[in-house]
Every structure is written in structure tokens, then in C-alpha cells.
Amino acid sequence: MDDQTNFLEQRRFKLAELQRLGHDPYPRRFDYTHTLGQLRAAFDPLDAATLEDRKETARICGRILSLRPHGKAGFLDLADGEGRVQVYVRRDTVGEEMFELFRLFDLGDIIGAEGTIFRTRTGELTLLATKVHHLSKNLQPLPEKWHGLTDVETRFRQRYVDLIMNPGVREVFVKRGAIIREIRRYLDQRGYLEVETPVLQTIAGGALARPFRTHHNALDIDLYLRIALELYLKRLIVGGIPRVYEMSRIFRNEGISSHHNPEFTMLEFYQAYSDYNDLMDMSEEMITRIAETVTGSRQVPYGEHVLDFDHWQRLTMKEAIFRFWPASLPPPAEGDLQSVDRLRTLAEAVGARYAPADGPGKLMSLLFETVAEEHLVQPTIVYDHPAEVSPLAKTKPGDPATAERFELYIAGMEIANAYSELNDPAEQKARFEEQLRARDRGDEEAHGMDQDYIRALRYGMPPTAGEGIGIDRLTMVLTDSPSIRDVILFPLLRPEPEAGE
């Protein structure tokens, strides 16, 4: 008999014993007076003498993470995600019937206990139980106590066990919730309206990315899961909502890495009568404020670095390429970044793979990603991107090859993307047509034609600046998490193999 089978047999026997003794193994509710965190907050400051005088009582509940029976008494540790509290059960206090119930408790069971708060001789805050209650039976073995749940894939696949065994995991998602609340607070205070736009779309627009495709049976049409929030939000700018935002899931049919998950959370916000310079200032202010509020400091540890949100730097994309060009290679000249042939030579020199159809803008962007991106550890804004890779952005006056666009980098990751929005319907149509030609040349990420969006622009969209911020990556930065899977509760994984495979 293997250990798993033996474990299940023992637990099922105790489950049957609970029923034989008249206990419902899965009761409907339990009235408690304190969460374990509340209990700690209320009584941790009190010493043993004060607790003895007050004789404070409480009803608590949680999962048994430690069980130490000793003859006619025993200790157990309860945890509920907020805290951990010791419970002392004595037969002469709870009585024979309830002590028999205590003896049927197992590691991992969820139980309730009521009694008096005191401190043991070692000073441990403890509840002396007068009653115990069984609330749910654990029928699956928890990971071994001292090593916990450490296998990475198992942690992500069985997040419920990860949360039980690794208290720090919950803190990551508590901070994630705080980040989202602070973003909403910041935007709401500035007159932004939060809205919801369609997830299922007939055209995958607003970004250069490969979409997921699905089919609607009743309408008999193919649809896409959205790859961005942008085009619907800008329709609302046209409709007279001057400040608008949405925070929601985005889906892109692309690779998986420590920085990429096929579904992720994006914030997009748009501000009429503004340009990308306004959003540079706003982004620095907003993210610095969020970092300070959520972490308690403007100096935030990330891996071996300390991120300093008191000091931001700004570089054009060209400046970033020149600054971080490998010292072992001859540096490029300014003119090299305007010639397709020279750009291809430079890309080959740094080991960047490009497609034969890539134009100068795409090649320059590829060079930047290859030589500069990983070095942008401290908060950095990289602005003035090629128009070729920015089909929805205005170009700079007198420089049609350069878009009024910036990306925000922290810890070597792109955190945000923003630009002055193109609002000339004729120019937007021409950009879409160029993207269609790129698609015909084999670019699977090229933007489709959105005639309704062009029609919306013909009604007139005011000068507008818009930005998208990746919530998952921002959470990585502010929780010192090395992988995007650490900050998504249920990241996408391959299905588990069938038994016997």
C-alpha cells in the first residue's frame, strides 16, 4: 500500500468516525468573533498578567497547520491567511466528548475553537479552548512541513496549496489589490471616468499583436479576444468623455516567458487636450505615488537592485541605443539608424533576428530591444519611437518618421506605452492601409483596418494623449517578484498529463 493510499484510508476512517459520533463533517457556517489577524492585533500588545486579569474570550477558526497532541492535552496552530494563532486543548477543560473530537483532527483540517486568551510560559499568545468544532476534513496531504511547496509548476497549478503553505504569496496579492486601488484613486481624483468596453471584437485592434480567435454561433461570425482597450476608449473621447480609463484583461496569442502571459491585466487611460509630454509627467507622479503608498518608500528593492523613484531619467530611443551599445563593437553613427542596409548590419552584429520585410523603424526598435532594454533598471522613460511601429500615434512636427510616443521601463521591463493619439482620419486610414500591406508581407502582428474607428475620427476627436500600463509587471516591480506567474493567481499552464502517461 503506497503512502497516498494509506493517508486517504486514515482520513476517510476519521471522517466516518466524525459521522458516527454525530458531527456533521461539513457544517454550513461558523460564527466567529475575530479573524486571526484581528485577534493578533487586539491581544499581541497585552502581557500575560493583563490577559489573566481580563479573561478575554474569542471564537476563532482556521486551518490546522501544526498539531501536537500530548496525552490528555495538545496544541495546534491555526492559520486563516491573515494570521496564525496557537490553540491549547485540554481534556479536563473541553470535556470527554469534545476531546474525542479533538483526537479526530488532522493536519490540514479546518476547525473552530472558542475559549480564553492567555500566554504560555514561553510567552506565546494562545487560546485555551473550552469548545472545538470540526468545519471541514482535509483529504489531501499537505506538502512536507519544513520544505513546504517549492516546485514552481505545482505552486502555480495548485495555487490554493501555495497560499496555504507559503504566507508570503498572499502578501503579493494583497499588494496587487492595493496597487489597483491606488491607481483608481489617483485617476478618479483627476476626473477620469471608469468604463467597460467589449472583450469580444470583430477586429483585433489597438496594438500590434497576434489575437485569439473564436466563433459566435448565433451570429455565425468570427470574433477576437481583445488585444487592447484603445480603440473603444478613444471612441468615447470622440463622444465627449474627456478623461476615461479601463482596467481589464487583455489576451494575446503570443509566447510565454517570465515577463509574458497570454492573458494579463492592462490599464488604459485617455486624456483629451493633452499630448505625450503631459503623460510623461503624469506617469512619473502616479507611479511614484503608488510605489510609496504600497511599499512605504520611494526606494524599492528588486532583486539585487534598489529602484529609486525619486530619480527618473528620460532618453530618446536613439540616445538609448547609443548609450548602451556594446563596448566590444564599433559604435553606430547617427546616419546608420536611417539606412535599412546599415540597420540590418547592426542587427546582425548584435545577434538580433529580423524579417526581410522589416523597414527602418522596425529595425531600429529591434536594435533598442536588443542592446538597451535590459539595462533600463532604474525608472526610465524612452521617447520618440519610429512611426513605423506606432500606427496609432501622431508624428513629430517636421519628422514624419518619428512618433510622439514613449515607453516606461523599470527593472529592465516595459511597464507602460503611451503616445499623442493620431486624430486625423485620412492619415489614420493611410496608416491602416500600410499595416495591411505589412500583413500581406507576412507580418502576423500587423493592425487590421477598422472602418468604424475611422468614421468616429471623422466626427472629430480632440487632441488626446493615451497610455497603457501593464498591471502585472508593475506588481512584479513593487513586490520584488522575478516572474509574471508570481503575480497572477492562476497563470496559463499546459494541461496536466493524464494518469499513466
Class of secondary structure makeup: alpha+beta
Q: Overall 3D geometry?
A: elongated
Strands, count:
19
Kindly estimate the percentage of residues that lie in beta strands according to DSSP: 25-35%
Number of domains: 2
Looking at the structure, the CATH topology of the largest domain is: BirA Bifunctional Protein, domain 2
Q: What's the CATH architecture name of the largest domain? A: 2-Layer Sandwich
Identify low-pLDDT runs: none
Query: CATH homologous superfamily of the largest domain - what is it?
Result: Bira Bifunctional Protein, Domain 2
Subunit arrangement of the protein: single chain
**What distance separates the N and C termini?**
21 Å
Task: Write down the overall mean pLDDT.
Answer: 93
CATH class term of the largest domain: Alpha Beta
> What level of helicity do the residues show?
25-40%
Characterize the largest beta sheet: strand count, sense, and whether it forms a barrel: 9 strands, mixed
Rounded to the nearest angstrom, the radius of gyration is: 29 Å
Tell me the number of helical segments per DSSP (H or I, 4 or more residues long): 16
Describe this structure in words.
The strands form four sheets. Strands 6, 10, 11, 14, 15, 16, 17, 18 and 19 form a nine-stranded mixed sheet that branches. A five-stranded mixed β-barrel has the order 1-2-3-5-4. It has a three-stranded antiparallel sheet with strand order 7-9-8, with no helix packed on it. It has helices at residues 3-20, 36-43, 48-54, 91-94, 96-103, 152-157, 159-165, 167-189, 230-238, 276-295, 317-323, 340-349, 360-371, 425-440, 451-458, 471-479, and strands spanning 57-70, 73-79, 84-90, 110-119, 125-136, 193-194, 200-201, 213-216, 221-225, 243-251, 263-272, 299-302, 305-308, 313-316, 380-386, 395-396, 399-410, 413-420, 464-470. The mean pLDDT is 93. It folds into two domains: 3-142, Nucleic acid-binding proteins (OB fold (Dihydrolipoamide Acetyltransferase, E2P), Beta Barrel), CATH 2.40.50.140; 165-324 and 372-486, Bira Bifunctional Protein, Domain 2 (BirA Bifunctional Protein, domain 2), CATH 3.30.930.10. The protein is of the alpha+beta class and 501 residues long.
